[in-house]
Amino acid sequence: MPAVSIEHYENFPVASWLCPPHLRPAVVAIYHFARTADDLADEGSATTAERQAALRAYRQDLRACFAGQPPSPRWADRVFLPLAARIRQHQLPQPLLEALLDAFEQDLVKTRYASRAELLHYCERSANPVGRLLLHLYGVGSPQALAQSDAICSALQLINFWQDFSRDGPNGRCYVPQEDLDRHGLQAEAWVRCEDSPVARRLIAELCTWARQLMMSGAPLAHTLPGRAGWELRLVVQGGLRILERIEAMDHASLVRRPRLSALDAAPLLWRALRMRPAPQGARA
């Protein structure tokens, strides 16, 4: 993610200096909602059953906010009281927030994906709602803008997967579609053991190409969003592409080493964001 963010949730930047001040409270409230749910699903030593129970209680508190009822004390101060205020102020869509919880719950029980289409269906709940919530705040809702936002968010989710092989593997998770593994003669169990090989690196190179193409298909959205929103999205796009470059620079060895961005990447990201140009009309069509 771009270095301009003050906090990080894997699918969006939060309260950067490019975010319009009047929208920052809403963006931060959505961030804390998603970040806390992610922690309930992933952090600590709780059992799967305990995590599922916590996420069910969390969803009940979300529904209480939309019903105008008080949430439970557990997450009220940090998450649901600020979120309830922004729900009222901005009429946030409930299905998008619930979709994020669907994805976190899925992560507790599903660790394999048969096809790219199935993995993208997961991204529709784990990543795309974030972009749609931000577009809602900006008052943007055209079908083209929503589709481009979905492409960017899904690409960011995929890039996060390709970046985190060495973290997800020890947790038994394999986000590489089985159809891609089969095509290269690889086994999911070997993948979660992070067994590096020339064949595995060739597959990672293909996956990076897929994510890059998806990102570039949505990138024109950055030129249609107003003011600061467009500039922030340019940095988001370039941050994702920069991670792909890091994976390529290490010869696609992300099974054994996690690529990351640093403060040194800030200047190149800003420069590339400034140089982004809208695609020609024919290319967009």
UniProtKB/TrEMBL annotation:
CDD domains: Trans_IPPS_HH. The keyword DNA damage does not apply. Signal peptide: none annotated. It is an enzyme of class 2 (transferase). Pfam families: SQS_PSY. Keywords: Transferase. It comes from the Bacteria. InterPro entries: HSQ_synthase_HpnC, Isoprenoid_synthase_dom_sf, Squ/phyt_synthse, Trans_IPPS_bact-type, Trans_IPPS_HH. Its EC number is 2.5.1.21. One of its GO terms (molecular function) is squalene synthase [NAD(P)H] activity. PANTHER family: BIFUNCTIONAL LYCOPENE CYCLASE/PHYTOENE SYNTHASE. NCBIfam families: HpnC. This is Squalene synthase HpnC. It comes from Roseateles flavus.
